[in-house]
Design brief:
- By secondary structure, the chain is of the alpha/beta class.
- It folds into 2 domains: 85 residues, 3-Layer(aba) Sandwich (Rossmann fold); 133 residues, Rossmann fold.
- 41% of the residues lie in helices and 16% in strands.
- It is built from 10 helices and 11 strands.
- The chain has a 6-stranded parallel beta sheet with strand order 1-11-8-7-5-6.
- Helix 6 crosses helix 10.
- The chain is globular.
- The N and C termini lie far apart (55 Å).
- The mean pLDDT is 95.
Amino acid sequence: MVATILDGKAIAGDIRKELADETQAWKAKRGITPCLAAVLVGDHPASEVYVRSKQRACEQAGLESQLHRLPADCREIDLLELIARLNQDHAVHGILVQLPLPSHLHETKILDAIHPMKDVDAFHAENVGRICQGRPRYLPCTPHGIVQLLHRTGIKVSGKQAVVVGRSDIVGKPMAMMLMNRDSTLGPNCANATVTVCHSRTAGLGDITRQADLLVAAIGKPRFVTADMVKPGAVVIDVGINRVGEQLVGDVDFEAVKEIAGHITPVPGGVGPLTVAMLLYNTLLAAKLQNMSA
């Protein structure tokens, strides 16, 4: 058996086309262009690529984008003052601080400075709490993209055993919460899973992952998930993006695991494009919510 490849790039294209149409209709009705402001500290090469891709995606969907650059050695107060100005700017609906930040900057303090209504990454404590309670304002872009992928390919998670390998605030923890909640924005079949969260120090990790009907790998280690860790026929979602030499690889040993799994996402072309698409979704939603409350 060879796994069905889940084409995240194609599904992200569909979502972006839907968003472009919705954005155009909303702009015509309200006369307001949704705007995403990205903040880039330093000149980290990968961050440069990510920010440019997000800017291009905004332009293609009819959204406005801003890029604010600060030097790698900027003072924390300067970054906080920039975020405060963007919070007060009614023309800006979403704020994204590109991670990682230089080590002298306190990441949690910076992310908590973004107004919750403009927190389109859904990293602010208020938005995380709302997800935990099952009443989200925004959903984190990568987990939301994964749920969209499952929904649009007809893969149901309700009642299934799900294992998330990785406990980051960006992917692992919110992914687990979204899968275990009673419902989701896409209906009950996209939630109600029985979820186990594992990490690199989990004892008997392979014994746990082999029980998973849905396995989400988000641990940040190249080819960490091997074929002997996967249940035959499982759905395997690879969140990892790792550079090995000149090659981009995921957290899953793709060539081996695709012979065992029922469905699998590739790297690149799997989860990554969906993350960007859901950032656009959140920016449009933020503009709508702020216009309602104005």
